[in-house]
Amino acid sequence: MAAVRAEWPRILASAALAVPGYNLALYYGQQHGVPAPIASLTTALLPLFVMLLAAAFLGERLTRRRLLGFAVAAAGMVVVALARRDQAARAYALAIGVTILAPLSWSIFSVLSKRPSRQVGPLLWTYLTVLIGSAMLLPLVPHAWPQWRRLDLPGWGALVYLSIPCTVIGFAVWAWLLKHLPASSVGFTVFLNPPLTTLSKLALAALFPATFVFAVKAQEFAGGGLALLGLLLAVTKGRAAPGYGSGTTKSGR
Question: Which one of 25-34, 188-197, 222-231 scores highest in mean pLDDT?
């Protein structure tokens, strides 16, 4: 297909960002002590990253209120990163910083995918990026194989669940939304991640206390609330200043 051949550089970049970039950053953070609710909260920064990138490269509108929301949310992430004041505080802050690279990678992927998702089609675009991005991880298989061999049946079930519904189907839905909606609007759909992850972790910790441990500090909750306040500022409509953040986009749409 001519459209696919024309988009190969973008396909390679998108595959690298969506699979190795996003997943390695996210799971590095979780492996190094970032609780799942906090990790999901960092992914909620994705709408703000997409908003800034879409304004810079897609001509979508950027307002003062959205910029303020980004600043408040970033401050919330700083509060979360400073929540651990023990000897591992620096390592925890580093883990938070690496985890934030996950939504940044996904945001760049989303902006890169806006045009080709229309020309190539969302399903084909998803399969190409997932397949090529997964192939980029093949050199890590020998390192991961001993851990895979130790997985029990629930572990393999979780791996399949993360691979098929969460990745293949989730990517396809995301690409379909990018085809039909502004990138900045699609980015806001991740707002449900933090509350759903927190509730899921609470439920799993109550049902399977030997497997799941729910441990989030009060300061992390406070920083998370500040980050969500920033997101709320970014998505709610304020009174726009005359001549600023209103009217059409750069492209005239």
Answer: 25-34
**Pair of tokens at residue 112:** 């890169």
| Stretch among 36-40, 47-51, 92-96 having the lowest mean pLDDT | 36-40
pTM for this prediction: 0.61
